[in-house]
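Sequence, please.
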């Protein structure tokens, strides 16, 4: 069965081997003419098929290296070296098989995500305790609010909130955290994580298409389907290598006066090292990045990452933890602290701003009931307005609140603090002060970038200047652009130099600048779908150390790809120079070229390995710290 599958997968190789065996048999039996005609007919058909493919590539604007193989086959047939021409055919078709095999090996970590994608969910329909009824549904049919049963060792089908008192989940395929993570009731559980030894219940909080694991799968599919830059990378060498090969072959013919010498040289110039080794290297880079929790949407990103010279960071949720906690309520004269906090938290129910969750959480912890309303609206990146009874509440940035309450005064903030300003009924009501600490690895990431070829590092944030400056100072960034809107972020990113420019963000407001940058990187561990859709790279591990992983993989992969190409070129040219003397017959040259192919492909697979990623022990310590904190 395995042999049958192999034959079906590689029909051209199978036919070529059969034809070669028949031709060798006829030649050994003395039927030389029949052997020549069969070989010539088959190689002629293969040449025609290759030329058709070349024409299609040219029409698509891709000038490749197949012309060398075509010329080599024609030349060997012309001088009667039909066995050599058959070996060239076998080499080219065998090269495609080697590419597919190496590609499957390189994609293994990527496709592992697809293979284990959850497809079924156990929905608890009604009743309680022993009377519960469980219905199996396709994950696409799960609705928000459905209660799901996740049995021991099963994959969580959609994002949800844990209902069971406690649970343990393996999130290694999502975050790279090797140890199981404990969750308590009310905690978010990500789809794609593996349940521990006890059955648990979760309440679906997102549809299947919007859940974390399915978003990752979509990114992986996009990465696999992309046209890697390796093709373009090889194209840069195609015309010069073709020209040098033809010149060497022509020179050998001219100096020897023997047309056979032209064929003997050219069979050693077949393009498999360039056509195969470089794509394998880039697939290996994509695979290695995925294993480290970094999904690159296309192979083109690898080359950009390898050459990044400027980096811009968002602040909240990127350089900082992204979970600000309320540290002080400073009411204005005529207002109480509880009144300001209750009304502000009630309004923040209708806001998606990162500070909103901390304000709501503080109000609930202090036992303040949150009010509801049908009259609420959010002005993106500025603030939220809501009416509760006869009271109009505005919460947001100082400049925005001041347009509605002219008596607004700015608060004095300490390092790492941020403030939400509150106006009630057109009067400044007070300030809510929150603190969001930098990630423990942020300073090391900034230092690593500065020490590894990144010439310019900046912070682009909509937060206030004092808060932004404080965080920037803590993490080692000197260039700060604060209190800017998404459109201004895009303009600043466009104007940054030197290029390429990498932008790192996590929120919905970062989506425009991520899409506009040379390389957009989204911190996707917390499910920032809009940012992930706009970015070129998504970091699944909740650690900024993934930036170092992405850049390191890009540089190592590009270095391996270029080295593989140069190995193939150097070996081919060296062998061609030897063949110009006539010491390498055409058949031996064609067989020798197979060894060149093998050498370059084996070297290209080095992209799967390489030096250790990230920040070493510091990154590991940070991830352990995050796991303990969760």
């Amino acid at each position: 069965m395995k042999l049958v599958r192999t034959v079906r997968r590689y029909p051209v190789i199978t036919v070529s081997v059969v034809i070669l065996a028949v031709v060798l048999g006829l030649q050994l039996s003395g039927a030389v003419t029949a052997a020549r005609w069969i070989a010539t007919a088959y190689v002629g058909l293969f040449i025609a098929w290759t030329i058709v493919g070349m024409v299609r590539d040219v029409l698509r604007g891709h000038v490749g290296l197949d012309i060398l193989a075509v010329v080599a086959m024609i030349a060997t047939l012309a001088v009667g070296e039909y066995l050599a021409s058959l070996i060239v055919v076998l080499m080219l078709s065998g090269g495609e098989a080697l590419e597919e095999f190496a590609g499957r090996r390189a994609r293994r970590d990527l496709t592992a995500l697809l293979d284990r994608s959850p497809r079924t969910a156990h929905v608890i329909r009604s009743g309680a305790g022993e009377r519960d009824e469980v219905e199996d549904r396709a994950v696409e049919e799960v609705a928000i609010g459905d209660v799901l049963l996740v049995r021991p060792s099963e994959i969580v089908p959609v994002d949800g909130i844990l209902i069971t008192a406690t649970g343990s989940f393996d999130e290694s395929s999502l975050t790279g955290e090797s140890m199981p993570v404990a969750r308590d009731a009310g905690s978010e559980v990500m789809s794609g994580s593996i349940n521990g030894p006890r059955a648990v219940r979760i309440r679906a909080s997102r549809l299947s298409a919007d859940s974390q694991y399915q978003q990752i799968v979509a990114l992986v599919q996009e990465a696999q389907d992309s046209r890697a830059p390796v093709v373009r990378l090889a194209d840069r060498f195609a015309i010069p290598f073709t020209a040098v090969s033809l010149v060497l072959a022509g020179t050998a013919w001219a100096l020897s006066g023997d047309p056979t010498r032209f064929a003997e040289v050219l069979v050693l110039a077949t393009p498999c090292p360039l056509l195969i080794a470089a794509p394998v290297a880039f697939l290996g880079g994509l695979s290695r990045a995925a294993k480290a929790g970094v999904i690159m949407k296309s192979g083109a990103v690898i080359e950009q990452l390898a050459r990044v010279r400027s980096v811009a960071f968002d602040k909240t949720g990127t350089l900082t933890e992204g979970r600000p906690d309320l540290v002080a309520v400073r009411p204005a004269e005529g207002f109480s602290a509880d009144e300001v906090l209750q009304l502000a938290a009630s309004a923040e129910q209708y806001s998606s701003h990162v500070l909103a969750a901390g304000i709501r959480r503080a109000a609930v912890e202090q036992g303040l009931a949150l009010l509801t309303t049908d009259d609420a609206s959010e002005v993106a990146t500025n603030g939220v307005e809501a009416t509760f009874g006869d009271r109009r509440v505005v919460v947001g940035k100082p400049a925005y609140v001041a347009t509605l309450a002219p008596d607004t005064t700015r608060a004095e903030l300490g390092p790492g603090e941020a403030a939400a300003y509150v106006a009630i009924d057109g009067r400044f009501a007070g300030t809510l002060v929150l603190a969001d600490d930098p990630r423990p690895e942020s300073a090391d990431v900034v230092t690593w970038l500065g020490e590894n070829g990144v010439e310019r590092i900046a912070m682009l944030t909509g937060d206030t200047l004092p808060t932004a400056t404080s965080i920037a100072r803590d993490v080692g960034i000197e260039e700060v652009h604060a209190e800017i809107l998404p459109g201004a972020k895009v303009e600043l990113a466009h104007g940054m130099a030197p290029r390429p420019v990498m932008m790192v963000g996590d929120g919905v407001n970062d989506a425009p600048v991520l899409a506009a940058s040379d390389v957009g990187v989204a911190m996707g561990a917390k499910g920032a779908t809009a940012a992930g859709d706009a970015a070129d790279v998504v970091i699944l591990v909740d650690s900024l150390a993934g930036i170092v992983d992405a850049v390191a993989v890009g540089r190592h992969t590009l270095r391996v790809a270029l080295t593989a190409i140069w190995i193939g070129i150097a070996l081919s040219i060296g062998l061609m120079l030897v063949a110009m003397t006539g010491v390498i017959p055409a058949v031996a040259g064609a067989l020798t070229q197979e060894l060149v192919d093998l050498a370059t492909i084996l070297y290209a697979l080095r992209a799967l390995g390489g030096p250790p990623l990230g920040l070493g022990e510091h990154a590991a310590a940070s991830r352990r710290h995050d796991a303990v904190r969760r």
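The longest strand covers residues 427-435.
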